[in-house]
Amino acid sequence: MNAATTGVRQGSREFRTITLAFFVAGFATFITLYDVQPLLPVFCAEYGVPAALASLPLSVATSALAATMLLAGTVSETWGRKPVMVLSLCVTSLLALVTPLSHTFGALLALRLIQGGVLAGLPAVAMAYLSEEMDAASLAAAMGLYIAGNAVGGMTGRIFTAAITDLFSWRVAIGTIGVICLGMSLVFARSLPPSANFRRRPFQASYLLTSLLKHLRDPGLLSLYGIAFLLTGSFVTLYNYITFRLLGAPYNFSHTVVSSLFLVYLIGSWSSASIGRVTRRFGRENVLLAAMAVMGGGAAITLAHQVSAIVCGMALFTAGFFAAHAIASSWVGTRAQTAKAQASSLYLFSYYLGSSISGTLGGIFWTTFGWDGVVSMIVFLVAGALVVAVRLVRLFGDTAAAPEEFGELEEIPAQPSN
After folding, report:
1. Which of 42, 96, 192, 387 has its CA 20 to 30 A from that of 18?
2. Residues sharing a CB contact under 8 Å with residue 208, sequence separation 6 or more, in sequence order
3. pLDDT, tens digit, for every residue of 148-193?
4. What does the alpha-carbon distance between residue 347 and residue 330 come to, in Å, rounded to a whole number?
5. In degrees rounded to 5, what are phi and psi of residue 219?
């Protein structure tokens, strides 16, 4: 069959090539975005700022990324998917090389703000590219592998940055990441095939506004955007402030030891990469709700004082988050009837807006109430997402009974087909 008409199928050579390219791209995206997360206590000490302000190098980057996400998706409708993604990764890598030259907190924030804005071109367009090029039955698997790259990149960035900071300095760590990501950007540019199913459209402001309003009037998409906002806010909050907890008494761990906890990202990588098989067996809606329940339980377990229990709680929370994110993001790509890049951009806008707001708000909870307060905030956000998800499932979960409401929604049978 022709991939241009039926889409790329799982198991084919082209599927492996595309998913490997996006695994590399996801890795590079998240290693540059989150490499500063374990450095928040370092920024507190070096620049003399409180915990909530020390989180700004991460929050301003995710805020800028969210703000430019819609523009990046729209630009790709005119320029093409691949050119926007390649440019985004290359410029982001160059900015990472410049970041170590910032000697004031304001300069650091300015560079991170620009970097976040430029970085928007990759995640905003990746979901649209995959939803256009992949066979419907293979989309969840492809999206899961892309998100697995995100997980591994996020884990590596945190661990590598902390270890190199202990050995040398945070400036050496960030500069080295810039070099690594520049190489990955070139690999992505060489290996990703040009779009086969993408059709360019001239930029029209009226079309932009019309399609934007159409997406925002869709209750299914709005629910998915709400889930992204709430779950990502809870996820970033946990990882922002667990470092403060474990660097202080009674643990007093080093940055390297604390960063080793980010190895639990491997659990997230596994859960997102496996999500296609799991949803085919148990159903997308059931797995989405179960993943959120796992997140809430994992967050509660981190209230324990034993390090082993904290690690177990983080692992459960991480697995639940990446599973939920993989399901929700692939659902957006199949639900949107038109302007898929814009629909994906709105999802990621909500995703990173939640990261920015809750990631900084969590600092106030940490300073005022300690870890108990942080966990209370996280559980509240997850509970809110669960309420939204239940409503989503009740309205649109039975895709077999009402396919006309979903257009080209991916069909994931409730039971395995073989």
Report:
1. 96
2. 74, 342
3. 787 788 788 888 898 899 899 999 999 999 999 999 999 999 999 9
4. 10
5. -65, -30
Hey, what amino acid is at 256?
A: T
Q: CA–CA separation, 110 vs 95, rounded Å? A: 11
Strand partners, 134: 8
The answer to whether 361 touches 185, Cβ cutoff 8 Å, is: no
Q: With beta carbons less than 8 A apart as the criterion, state whether 156 and 376 touch.
A: no
Q: Which of 213, 216, 233, 225 is nearest to 328 (CA)?
A: 225
Residue 8: phi and psi, rounded to 5, are: -80, 130
Give the CA diameter of the chain.
62
127 bridge partner residues? none
**How many CA within 13 A on the CB side of residue 217?**
7
Q: Are the beta carbons of 333 and 128 closer than 8 angstroms?
A: yes
Place of tokens 């629910």: 223
Taking the C-alpha atoms of residue 45 and residue 342, their distance in angstroms, rounded to an integer, is: 40
- Kindly report the number of other CB atoms within 10 A of residue 107's CB atom: 12
412 contacts 284 by C-beta, under 8 angstroms: yes
CA distance 334 to 355: 24
Q: Where are the alpha helices (DSSP H) in 217-339?
A: 219-247, 255-259, 265-273, 275-282, 284-301, 307-335
The answer to whether the CB of 139 falls within 8 A of the CB of 333 is yes
Burial string for 137-162 (b: 16+ CB within 10 Å, else e) reads bbbbbbbbbbbbbbbbbbbbbbbbbb
Place of tokens 């900084």: 360
Write out the two tokens for 264.
Answer: 């639990």
User: Dihedrals φ, ψ of 399, to 5°?
Assistant: -65, -30
Gap between the Cα atoms of 362 and 353, Å rounded: 14
Ranges 62-66, 144-148, 184-188: which has the least confidence? 144-148
Q: What CA–CA distance (Å, rounded) separates 3 from 133?
A: 8
pTM beyond 0.85: the answer is no
